[in-house]
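User: Predict the structure for this protein chain, please.
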Amino acid sequence: MSGARELAAVVQRDGAATFWVERSARALGFDRLAESLLGEADYAPYLYVLTVLFLDVPVVNTINYYRGYDSLMTSPWWGWPGVIWWLIPAVVVLSVYFLRTLRDRYDRALDDVGRQATGPTVDPALSRGLQYSTLLLGLVVFAVWLTTAVGPILEEVGPLVGAFKWLVVVPLVYVPIGTDLTAAYVHVQLVLPRRVRAAGVALDFSDPRRLGGMYPLGRTMRFAAAATFVALTLYTVLWSLGLVVTPEMFSAATRTTVAVFFGLAWALAAGALVAGLFVTHRHMAASRSAELNRIHDALRQLGDDDQSIPYTAPRDEAEFRTYLREYVRLDRVERTRTVPVNVAVAWELVGVAVLPMALQVVTLSL
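Assistant: Here is the predicted structure, written as structure tokens:
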């Protein structure tokens, strides 16, 4: 087990990198329930969110139906309002899956990054400070939005259900899941590349992928972007459906707040991906440049002059062997790319943000 993996194991035992949904599940005893029912405590977060979803979607809407308030039960499951019955569980459960998979990815990504066996260990842990700050920001944004929407919502769903859903379920369950996904994404795209650069991780120029051993980091950044963009797409569609299907529940101020929020979220997510790739590119380019300079300096020591390839002339067989060895190294270093992912794929991921952002503009204009 490498230093990074050992550190990740310690982090897991101490709970320092545990997400809010996992802490809540553990605090409410869902870990013991999952172990007794499913034989594995690792399923506790899913059992927890499924229980909350059961209360939030079928139970709450059934109560509203019999109390005479607005309910999804009054619409067929195949209609637009009925789609929300399926989208809410899908969005929440998929977000939890993305969270836990992303953590496993970034815990493993730094095990073999660069020449990790001969270089410094990079801390993969997600900081508590980042988690707390994103949660606080998320709750503030939600509170601001709620002040613009609370009146129409309570009129449609009633005070009892409205208080349960919008003062308990959303801020205590849904918002922490979203903010943890945000924190994990920021961690992968902005924090880890800077830690790699700060640690001075050397490139592995023997990498057959010609990525200097940075493929694990690049793969994690790509997965984080894809997972976050899928989650954002689902959130955007879900909110847009709500605004279109039940327009009476949302004022013009609410529409503007939601559209601005998701527009900024998409722009910042795409910007974070570009920024992370740029930081990694600068580190890889600097490392490759330093290695190229070292090889040329070694070549200048050969022959009777201070010329490098292709002008230097070895004096004897020993120098010629050194010449060939350094030439092979030079070719490998020159072929090493300075971005840890396929650039075309990265730009495609950034381009994915255009359609949901356009959807927000259309929603805002309705």
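Residues 1-17 have pLDDT under 50 and may be disordered.
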